[in-house]
Amino acid sequence: MVKEVASGVHDSRPKLLALLKDTSETRIVVEHRDRLTRFGFHYLETLLQAQGRASEVVNLAENDTEDLITDLVAIVSSFTARLYSQRLAKRKTERIAAELQGEEADHATR
User: Fold this and answer.
1) Interatomic CA distance for residues 66 and 74, integer angstroms
2) Phi, psi of 27 (to 5 degrees)
3) How far apart are the first and last CA of the chain?
4) Can you tell me the distance from the alpha carbon of 29 to that of 2, in angstroms, rounded to the nearest whole number?
5) Which residues in the chain come in under a pLDDT of 70?
6) Beta bridge partner(s), residue 62
7) Which of 23, 32, 35, 25 has its CA nearest to residue 2?
8) Contact predicate 6/34, CB 8 Å
9) Helix runs in the chain, H state only
10) What DSSP designation does 9 have?
């Protein structure tokens, strides 16, 4: 049994990746579909079936509307996470550039 608490948005999940590589594990059980992956669940399910494996979702959506709402929330969450990481990267780049400019100014005054 493998237990990993993580979002389906991220693809750097070592325990899940190891589980997917280990074909001796024939059934993957997840609490909610979006815990396995936010997008492309059907593709993953199809690949597992082609290997003679299965995925099982314990808490299925009760209707199509709930599925659509879940998908919409997943998309918004994904884009939000991407925006935040871009902002963080931009701030980090600006900080490094400022430090480098400071170092260049120090060298020029020597």
Assistant:
1) 12
2) -140, 130
3) 63
4) 10
5) 7-10, 62-64, 109-110
6) none
7) 25
8) no
9) 14-21, 33-36, 41-50, 64-109
10) T
Per the CB < 8 A criterion, the answer to whether 22 and 49 are in contact is: no
- State the maximum Cα–Cα separation within the chain, in Å, rounded to a whole number: 71
pLDDT value at position 55? 92
**Residue 28 · residue 19 · CB < 8 Å:** yes
CA 79 to chain centre: 12
Q: How many CB atoms lie within 10 A of CB 28?
A: 18
2 CB-side CA count, 13 A: 18
pLDDT at position 63 is 63
Question: Taking a C-beta distance cutoff of 8 angstroms, is the pair 42, 33 a contact?
Answer: no
pTM exceeds cut of 0.70: no
Distance (Å, whole) CA 77 – CA 75: 5
Name every residue whose Cβ is closer than 8 Å to that of residue 25 and which is 6 or more positions away in sequence: 2, 19, 53
